[in-house]
Amino acid sequence: MRIRAFLPRCSAVLQMPLLAACAALLVPDAVYSQASGEGAVSLAYGTVGPGAALEDLDGNAVDLSDYVKGGPALLEFWATWCENCEALQPQMDQVQMRYGDRINVIAVAVGVSQSVRRVKRHLDGHNPGYPYLWDARGAAVRAYNATTTSIVVMLDEDGKVVYTGVGGGQDLLSAVERLFGT
């Protein structure tokens, strides 16, 4: 109530930053440790990454938790038509090349406006050495609340969220290096 009484006295330019600052006080700190970007995953740092029923590209049922257990993991919610995903591809490949023996890299191919066949065609011309899993029913999208493509989630060795981000401008190599303390 005191905020509303104060706002009319402030210029319109100051009202929005003041409201944002007040809202920040009402939201848990963990949410603000996420990488910036609109539509990012809403899993807070320290949250255990959930499993999800998916398929491999041959149509076999798999669970995402089987791919992320046993060490740190880097997940990207990906689509063939996603320009931001294309921008992230070189970094994803570098993470796999440099750290693939220490981190599980997984692309979760969302089942929106693409098919398994289209994903396979993409991989015919580019095999990055990490799995692409098919999320036909949106199980992983819902589990991670991934509201768009190019969302990246990194889990530590205990399966807990240590990074989330969205968009082609993410610095994934730095995030992985921070995870490993290098």
Account of the protein in words:
This protein has 182 residues and is of the alpha/beta class. The protein folds into two domains: 1-28, no CATH class; 34-180, Glutaredoxin (3-Layer(aba) Sandwich). It has seven helices and seven strands. It has helices at residues 2-6, 12-26, 64-68, 83-99, 116-125, 139-144, 172-180, and strands at residues 53-55, 61-63, 73-78, 104-110, 132-135, 151-155, 161-166. The strands form two sheets. A five-stranded mixed beta sheet has the order 5-4-3-6-7. The longest helix has 17 residues, at 83-99. It is globular and about 40 Å long. Mean pLDDT is 81; it is low at 1-39.
Percentage beta strand: 15-25%
How many DSSP helices?
A: 7
CATH superfamily of the largest domain: Glutaredoxin
Overall, the morphology is: globular
Helix content: 25-40%
Q: Determine and state the CATH class of the largest domain.
A: Alpha Beta
Q: What is the name of the CATH topology of the largest domain?
A: Glutaredoxin
Describe the structure concisely.
The protein starts with a helix and ends with a helix. The chain has helices at 2-6, 12-26, 64-68, 83-99, 116-125, 139-144, 172-180, and strands at residues 53-55, 61-63, 73-78, 104-110, 132-135, 151-155, 161-166. With 182 residues, the protein is an alpha/beta fold.
